[in-house]
Amino acid sequence: MPSVPVVLKMIGITKEFYGNPVLKNVNLDVKQGEIHGLVGENGAGKTTLMNILFGMPVIQETGGFSGRIVFDGKEFLPREPRQAMAAGIGMVHQEFMLIPGFSVTENIKLNREITKENFLSRMFSRKLETLDMTTMAAHSRKAIDALAFEGIDEWAPVAGMPVGHKQFVEIAREIDKENVKLLVFDEPTAVLTESEAAILLDALKRLARRGIGILFISHRLDEVLAICDRVTVLRDGEIVAEKKAGETTVIELAERMVGRKVGGLRVPDRVKLPETGEDVLVVEDLAVNMPGERVRGVSFTVKRGEILGIGGLAGHGKLGIANGIMGLQPASGSVRFLGREISLNDPVSALRAGLAFVSEDRRNIGLLLDEALEDNLALTAMQVHGRFLRRVGPFTVRDPGSIRRYALETIKEFDIRTTGPRQIVRRLSGGNQQKVCIARAISLEPKLLLVSEPTRGIDVGAKQKVLEILHRLNREKGLTIIMTSSELVELRRICHRIIIMYGGIIAGILPPDASDAEFGLTMSGERSAERSGEHETTR
Amino acid sequence: MRRLVERVGVPRLLVGLFLLILFALAGLQRLPVKMLISSALVRIGMNGVLVLAMLPSIRAGLGLNFGLPLGVISGIVGMLVSLELRLSGLAGFFFALLVGVLLSLPAGYVYGLLLNRVKGEEMMVGTYMGFSLVAGMCMFWLLAPFKNPEMIWVVGGKGLRVTIPISHRFGGVLDNLGKFSIGGVEVPAGLLLFFAFLCVLVYLFSFTRTGMAMKAAGMNPAFARASGVNVEKMRILGATLSTVLGAVGIAVYAQSLGFVQLYLAPLMMAFPAVAAVLLGGASTSRATVFNAVAGVTLFQTLLTISLPVTQSVIGGDISEVAKLIISNGMILYALTRKEA
């Protein structure tokens, strides 16, 4: 189609973070007036691609990228977001970049204020000109009306608005910029109610008709198909499909998104579970108010000797569950372990009951980075069970002998690469730090181990080792494990059942051998929509 | 050699070197070096406990305890009670300690509660809490119902004096306890032993379960919480222990000085202690007993010897200025240096 000019062309974009390739030779183009969908799992590289387009500093700080960007017919190499904005690229953020105390108009016109002269400005400088609030308000009204959303008053303060309205203010700000040629929407409907989402999608189509190119990132595949002209699927930093919207289906997209990744990860067979396993953990109506990972009421059980997986896209609450059970994030509901109620919001209660947790936030919650390896290993067991202590006169102090013995055993058993038990854990590699975290949890001799994102940010060899460790603990010691991970492949390798979270509730519980399409659909919320009657009540 | 430098730290080596030069100069100027060393020893023991008081606060994640005047005032009240009862000698001193500690326990607890409400601003809040408390206590000193004429104004017969001499009560009881002379250098054995005893206590405490929990709470509250540590409680404990050591510290200080100083004297009490522990190599989030001992030794020796040496070399007294430059410079340096 030579008739429609191309607004944005990204050619052969390749990017590495510390030797890990996150984008491999990605080509993407957006035509004038086109809505182009971009879908992919978390970690597929969508955010990195957008960061490159916007010239976010993080890209330059980590060694830049290779490939070319052509924007509006010109070579374009943004080094900071300002340049991207000046060139005519607008971004609607997932998190709102609005100033709560300002009115809608002030937010829309921030830093692009319309001013008029007064006697001070004539005497000194243009910086002292008065704001022309009337004109500014009129412009804002026009931008809001263009979205066909009447619910917003241009004079109202942003603080206290419903999230949907804030989202519209964000969009209005972007389309108010006169030179805007390309708009990027990063999951714009994630926070909207259904009717608001419908209005937004309409507005997007209208914007496209005005000749603006739109890049639409979303996990909701039905939406993508409904409004996009073309859809690109990104998986592991590679483009695996580029389809016309009319020529594909939700199922095909879901399949492509998840895909079967054949890595070097091999784990021996799962242990067969007896059909009538005893439920060791019973979770009822657990709601967790974890920022960014809210859980809105989930109920499930865990059988003795099982590895239960929890998966789902980022922000849909999978991380909230373990943090809620362990009392680290404010939670409500009921959690019973071996018949005993665990009091929520109290980490000691969970730890005493025999639960142990390996946090997803390794560097902040998992480790004392500037302490020796052996002290990291021993500290939790010392606090919770009084292990590794001896008496010196009237004092009960740490017992260096037993700590050293345990540390040496652990280093050998988990194959931790270190210069010795006194090495500071900050100096260890990510994979070895993760082994320390798991070993510390094991030092509690737990009856149930919760691990979150055990393989995040570590290299392939270490991933393999960590999965093997978990598998071995399960097989040899019969340890029951709840494993939360963004890496669906890994969950499918070692788990017996996998809970998929969507929108803070359980979208489905799948066996590991369910089809790619089924996982894809469940993760993108298509399946929970079918059964919405059941879930509306728990919201 | 390099490992030695790393262990001891460049700032301490430089100060140590500077000290050696000062000693050499003192020798050249025919100053009484032995006497200088004796008086340095006294000043080390006299200030040591106040420096030690910084440790629990730093360990618990409260930063440097600029709220030390709280403990100091508790200790002062303890001594005043002992003086009012006309106790003297070791009995008088330990009674003063007992009352001071009993007062500082609830005071430190309340201080801990306060600090828990201002997380991240502990040092700033501590400083101004100390300042306002000192001001408030100025009224108390005037109105306090103490009757012993040794302590109150001669004229008018009401209100406590600015400085109260205690040499006939328990002044120097620790200094003179087991004092011996070696090669012309007088060693205040009792004083140094008392300081060493407290050092050992603090050292042992740091290896107890509670001590480890406190350290974890200070270094990484999120980690500590996930390990079943009650972080709030550890912070309160840190503030309390620091305040108690402050109370003990001022009693040791006063018995060496021979005076109890009231009114505005406690105002700046925290600063030399803070400077010393920093000079010893501590930071706002990490401190060991070694840091405290090394710091107080370097800092106080420097102050003792710089006065006579500069006087004889330059002919003027710059020791007070040097003290201010060193102590405030150290504090400024430590506060601006953010830990990685």
Can you walk me through this structure?
The complex is a heterodimer of chains A (539) and B (340). Chain A is of the alpha/beta class and 539 residues long. Chain A folds into two domains: 6-258, P-loop containing nucleotide triphosphate hydrolases (Rossmann fold, 3-Layer(aba) Sandwich); 279-536, Rossmann fold, CATH 3.40.50.300. Chain A is built from 21 helices and 24 strands. Chain A has a six-stranded mixed beta sheet. In chain A, strands 18-21-22-15-23-24 form a six-stranded mixed beta sheet, with helices on both faces. In chain A, β16 (331-337) and β17 (340-342) form a beta hairpin. By secondary structure, chain B is mainly α. In chain B, 70% of the residues lie in helices and 4% in strands. The radius of gyration of chain B is 20 Å and the shape is globular. Chain B starts with a helix and ends with a helix. The mean pLDDT of chain B is 87.
Label the overall shape of chain A. Answer: globular
> N- to C-terminal separation of chain A?
46 Å
Q: Please give the most extensive interface between any two protein chains, plus how many residues each contributes.
A: A-B, 30 and 20 residues
Give the DSSP E fraction of chain B (strand runs of 2 or more residues): under 5%
Mean pLDDT figure of chain A: 83
Q: List the uncertain runs of chain A.
A: 261-265, 529-539
Strand element count of chain B:
4
How many extended strands of chain A? 24
Number of helices of chain A: 21
Summarize this entry quickly.
The complex is a heterodimer of chains A (539) and B (340). Chain A is an alpha/beta fold.
Pick out its properties:
heterodimer; A: 539 residues; alpha/beta; Rossmann fold; 2 domains; six-stranded mixed beta sheet; 21 helices; 24 strands; 25% strand; globular; disordered C terminus; B: 340 residues; mainly alpha; two-stranded antiparallel ribbon; 4 strands
Topology at a glance:
The complex is a heterodimer of chains A (539) and B (340).
Chain A: E1 6-17, E2 20-31, E3 35-39, H1 46-53, H2 57-61, E4 66-71, E5 74-75, H3 81-87, E6 89-92, H4 104-108, E7 115-116, H5 119-123, E8 130-131, H6 133-146, H7 163-176, E9 182-186, H8 194-209, E10 213-217, H9 221-227, E11 230-235, E12 238-244, H10 250-258, E13 279-288, E14 295-303, E15 307-312, H11 318-325, E16 331-337, E17 340-342, H12 347-352, E18 355-358, H13 362-366, H14 373-385, E19 389-392, E20 395-398, H15 400-413, H16 430-442, E21 448-452, H17 460-477, E22 480-484, H18 488-494, E23 497-502, E24 505-510, H19 516-523, H20 526-530, H21 532-536
Parallel strand pairs in A: 3-10, 3-11, 6-9, 9-10, 15-22, 15-23, 18-21, 21-22
Antiparallel strand pairs in A: 1-2, 1-4, 4-5, 7-8, 11-12, 13-14, 13-16, 16-17, 19-20, 23-24
Helix pairs in contact in A: 6-7, 10-19, 14-15, 14-16
Chain B: H1 2-8, H2 10-28, H3 33-52, H4 54-59, H5 69-84, H6 89-116, H7 122-143, E1 163-165, H8 173-176, E2 180-182, E3 185-187, H9 189-205, H10 209-219, H11 221-226, H12 231-257, E4 259-261, H13 270-279, H14 289-314, H15 319-336
Antiparallel strand pairs in B: 1-4, 2-3
